[in-house]
Design a protein that fits this description.
The complex is a heterodimer of chains A (about 240) and B (about 325).
Chain A lengths: L1 E12 L2 E13 L4 E5 L6 H8 L7 E6 L2 E2 L7 H7 E4 L11 H11 L5 H14 L15 H13 L5 E5 L7 H16 L3 E5 L3 H7 L2 E6 L2 E6 L1 H6 L4 H10 L1
Parallel strand pairs in A: 3-8, 3-9, 6-7, 7-8
Antiparallel strand pairs in A: 1-2, 1-4, 4-5, 9-10
Helix pairs in contact in A: 3-4, 3-5, 4-5, 5-6
Chain B lengths: L7 H24 L14 E9 L4 E9 L2 E8 L4 E7 L10 E2 L4 E10 L1 H31 L4 H15 L3 H15 L4 H26 L3 H9 L4 H31 L11 H12 L2 H30 L4
Antiparallel strand pairs in B: 1-6, 2-3, 2-5, 3-4
The chains are: A alpha/beta (about 240), B alpha+beta (about 325).
Bound molecules: adenosine-5'-triphosphate and magnesium ion (MG).
Chain lengths: ~240, ~325
């Protein structure tokens, strides 16, 4: 489904050169749930953003469903429609109602009729448990509700993969659960997911594989069981000691 | 401390200050012995015109049919041509059977007509409106060019904005009229509208640029991550939000444009200001006319402010 080989992303700024992602290779099979963890600044977000082209990587290849993002001829908009993304800050469109947030890209990108798009939107809102807020503007919703709308918005495009970048980090603690529940349900339904998160409980329960990153590199890969009980790398051990 | 919200003393003070200013002005005017002629002003808004209706040939009055306020006069020329003129009954000057010579007045048509102040107001309004529309599109295009990734576009936009903001509008109007107007053979209205639109466009561009940049990056990223193109993202997500933010400065710019349009009177466009000047040459009611002209500008700009205020409240529902 997704195959990354030797992905490198270098940021050049006045402060100097940062190798945010430094030769990451990994493969994600259909239906697999991969959790990416690592300390702050380790390049998790940058790697995730490379997968849907929000960040143009410096070197390497990312192949999604047989299409290489490094290929100049690739239509990135087509890829993005297949790769849903959920952000830490929700990024709902504040000038549109909840249901319009869900229908906008369906109509513009998938060229669905308004009626079809709305049916899809209501079904998804029901699934994430906020169909009664369909006509509200995002600012009237709690953080947890907004993030669930954001997930529904990404799902409305019928993506083949879902990327989550710390989807619960901006939430009040009591709202984390409701968002994780939606994600767990998605995982159970067989969605291919790459999740950057600090929720170790979620990683343990849902992940098929855990990738630990540090300083732009993949340091350790393994099943949650392996990773949380006896990691081999020193840096992973240190990190786990700090977060658990 | 307990909060007090007694406002009446301050309202009273405001009224008192305004009264003092008014009294002071009145007193000062008394001293210079100015003859106020307010009664001369209304006719420049609206007047009752009387157009003489003349017979175009030598002939006879055939019939005179009066019905209420209008009268129909049928005329027959020496070579049997017939003509019917309609005039106001109380201005009838001929009788049935009367012989008339070419050019004799049969009567008058009475009609309410807009005076120069209203015509000037109309010119100012449409001139500002047309310039505003051009300025909006020009400003939008330039604002987008200012933040584009393309160096050439950015450079062009920046040079345009800097040149316009660094020179006086009056000089730009002269340049547009005497230089561009002569070279490209443009009418004065085109030059006036062009100069105003170019001027306001540069400021609108800066407002648009700031408005777009004020929208969080996450909005673009969310839209693009859904597969929307850069253009769709701009039109559907960024601009609607930016527009809401820039509505107050934008409306300020258009209010300025209305006021700045008074400068086109220097290239002989008969706008409100020029009408005022023309009326003064025939009435010498200098104070009255300028006061009236000022009040008329104030009226348009306040109406516009109110409209914008209403729009802002409409847009606020998604906050
Ligand atoms: N646009 C950018 N310009 C320059 N440097 C950047 C940019 N984005 C990220 N970086 C740098 O790249 C490195 C990786 O950042 P990234 O956001 O991917 O880390 P992260 O693992 O997601 O961290 P966190 O857990 O705090 O979100 C950091 O050192 C960061 O400073
Ligand atoms: Mg991050």
């Amino acid at each position: 489904m997704i195959k990354a080989t030797n992905v490198v992303k270098i940021f050049k700024s006045r402060a100097g050169v940062v190798r945010a992602v430094d030769g990451v290779s990994t493969e994600v099979a259909p239906g697999e749930v991969v959790v990416v963890i690592g300390p702050s600044g380790s390049g998790k977000s940058t790697f995730l953003r490379c997968i849907n082209g929000l960040e143009a990587f410096t070197d390497g290849h990312i192949i999604i469903d047989g299409v290489d993002l490094a290929d100049k001829k690739t239509n990135i908009n087509k890829i993005r429609a297949e790769v849903g993304m959920v952000f830490q800050q929700f990024n709902l469109f504040p000038h549109r109602t909840v249901v319009e947030n869900l229908t906008l890209a369906q109509c513009k990108v998938r060229k669905r009729s308004k009626k079809v798009a709305e049916e899809k939107a209501y079904a998804l809102l029901k699934k994430v448990g906020i169909h009664d807020k369909a006509g509200e503007y995002p600012s009237r919703l709690s953080g947890g509700q907004q993030q669930r709308v954001a997930i529904a918005r990404a799902l409305a495009m019928d993506p083949k993969v879902m990327l989550f970048d710390e989807p619960t980090s901006a939430l009040d603690p009591e709202m984390v659960g409701e968002v994780l529940d939606v994600m767990k349900q998605l995982a159970r339904e067989g969605m291919t997911m790459i999740v950057v998160t600090h929720e170790m409980g979620f990683a343990r329960e849902v992940a098929d594989r855990v990738i630990f990153m540090d300083e732009g590199k993949v340091v350790e890969v393994g099943t949650p069981e392996h990773f949380f009980t006896n990691p081999t790398e020193e840096r992973a051990k240190l990190f786990l000691k700090q977060v658990l | 401390m307990i909060a007090t919200d007694k406002t009446w003393p301050w309202k009273l003070l405001l009224v008192a200050i305004l009264l003092v200013v008014a009294a002071g002005t009145w007193g000062a005017v008394q001293k210079i012995d100015y003859q106020w002629r307010w009664y001369r002003v209304p006719q420049y808004f609206l007047y009752h015109a009387e157009d003489p209706q003349k017979i175009p040939f030598d002939g006879v009055v055939d019939t005179v049919k009066t019905s209420g306020k209008t009268t129909k006069v049928s005329l027959i020329s020496e070579n049997e041509e017939k003509l019917t003129l309609t005039i106001a009954t109380d201005t009838l000057r001929v009788d049935e059977g009367e012989d008339l010579f070419e050019g004799d007045t049969v009567g008058f048509i009475k009609e309410w007509r807009l005076g120069p102040l209203m015509l000037g107001l109309w010119t100012t309004l449409w001139l500002s409106a047309v310039s505003s529309v051009f300025a909006l599109f020009l400003g939008l295009a330039t604002g987008l060019a200012r933040i584009s990734k393309n160096f050439t576009l950015r450079g062009l936009a920046m040079i345009y904005v800097e040149c316009i903001r660094g020179t006086p509008l009056l000089v730009q109007i002269f340049l547009a009229y005497f230089f561009l107007g002569t070279v490209f053979n443009l009418s004065r209205n085109v030059c006036g509208i062009g100069a105003l639109a170019l001027f306001a466009g540069a400021y609108v561009a800066e407002i648009v640029r700031a408005g777009i940049q004020a929208i969080p990056k996450g909005q673009t990223e969310a839209a693009r991550s859904l597969g929307m193109t850069a253009f769709q993202t701009m039109v559907e997500v960024i601009l609607p939000q930016a527009f809401k933010k820039i509505l107050p400065p934008l409306s300020g710019q258009f209010i300025s444009l209305i006021k700045d349009s008074s400068l086109v009177s220097v290239i002989a466009i008969t706008d409100l200001t020029k009408s005022g000047r023309e009326i003064i040459t025939s009435t010498f009611a200098t104070f009255e006319v300028w006061l009236v002209v000022a009040a008329m500008y104030l009226l348009i700009t306040s109406v516009l402010s109110q409209v914008v205020y209403y729009m802002e409240r409409r847009f606020a529902i998604s906050d």
